[in-house]
Each structure stands twice: as structure tokens, then as C-alpha cells.
Write a structure and sequence with these properties.
single chain, alpha+beta, 5-stranded antiparallel β-sheet, 5 helices, 23% strand
């Protein structure tokens, strides 16, 4: 565990403030859930909680099925990174941070479909090779928890409206699975 040199006191209600620098670095936003762990030596660990993490295996199977039946590069992201992927290099995209463009789309809870001539939006901060063809937010009880993505390679054609509807359907299904 890396020491930061920052010390904070616990207030009379048992609260502690996580320094702004750490929140910014880890993309911890107001209202984000955190898991709390204790260590045997008395240490306390806070870890960002991703409700989509529970669905990772299921999301991977969903991506595989979409890729096998449509040939599309299918991905599912939580609010921080791509957690499931089929049809592209896992090393390049899986568990890599979402791009700022994808973060903005998710925050606005908007469906997106690339149209020729518009700016290319990267899926991940680390990848210039893949950009968003379609993105649909995953909502659970009104909360944004991630997105369903169909990615395009460097020379791929724009996706159809039916592809966008498929992504919306999958996003709705994953959101309802999280509710149950």
C-alpha cells in the first residue's frame, strides 16, 4: 500500500474526508459507493465499489454472444473502465480507463451512434485504435452504472440504427438484472 503523507482526523460522527487529490486520481465522485475492508494489523482499506463487477462474467458472455452473432466488437463498461469485451484485443482495452468522451456521454445518460464526418470518440484513454460506434447507458433504479458499447476499428463503417437498438436493449436488460 502506498503512503500519501496526508493525515485526516475522524470527526465526532465517525466521518473522514478523502483528500481531493486522491478522489480526482481515483475518479471518486460525490455519491459513489465505497467498500470498506479491515486488515488484521488494524489497517482500513477503502475501495471503489462497482455494482457492474458482480455482473462481469454475465456481461462477458453477453459480449461473446453479440460478437458471435453480429461480428461487432462488443464491450460493457462500468463507470471507470471496460469490464467485458469480445471481438478485440483484451490486452488493449479490458480494464483500461474509460475515455473522457465516454465518461461525458455516460454522465449525460445519452445514447450515441457515430455518424460519418463527426469526431471520433475513443472508448478508452489508452486506445487510439478503437472508437465508439454505439454507446448506451446502463441504468439501475435511475443510477448510472455503466454502458454497453459497440466499437469500431480504424477503417470500420458506421453502425446502423438496428445496432443502436440492440445496444439499448442489452443495456436495459443488464440494468434490470442489477435491480433483481
Amino acid at each position: 500500500m502506498k503512503a500519501t503523507g496526508i493525515v485526516r482526523r475522524v470527526d465526532d460522527l465517525g466521518r473522514i474526508v478523502i483528500p481531493k487529490e486522491i478522489r480526482r486520481t481515483l475518479k471518486i465522485r460525490e455519491g459513489d459507493p465505497l467498500e470498506i475492508y479491515t486488515e488484521k494489523d488494524g489497517g482500513v482499506i477503502f475501495r471503489k465499489y462497482s455494482p457492474m463487477g458482480e455482473m462481469q462474467e454475465f456481461a462477458s458472455q453477453m459480449c461473446e454472444a453479440i460478437h458471435n452473432n453480429t461480428g461487432l466488437v462488443a464491450a460493457v463498461s462500468d463507470r471507470d473502465s471496460i469490464i467485458a469485451l469480445a471481438g478485440a484485443s483484451k490486452r488493449e482495452l479490458l480494464e483500461k480507463p474509460n475515455s473522457q468522451e465516454l465518461d461525458k456521454l455516460m454522465e449525460n445518460r445519452k445514447n450515441y451512434r457515430y455518424t460519418p464526418g463527426s469526431a471520433l470518440l475513443r472508448a478508452s484513454e489508452n486506445s487510439e485504435k478503437y472508437h465508439l460506434g454505439v454507446a448506451s447507458p446502463i441504468l439501475c433504479q435511475g443510477d448510472l452504472i455503466g454502458s454497453v458499447l459497440f466499437l469500431l476499428g480504424e477503417n470500420a463503417q458506421a453502425l446502423e440504427e438496428s445496432d443502436q437498438r440492440l445496444a439499448q436493449t442489452v443495456a436495459g436488460f443488464l440494468g434490470s438484472q442489477m435491480e433483481s
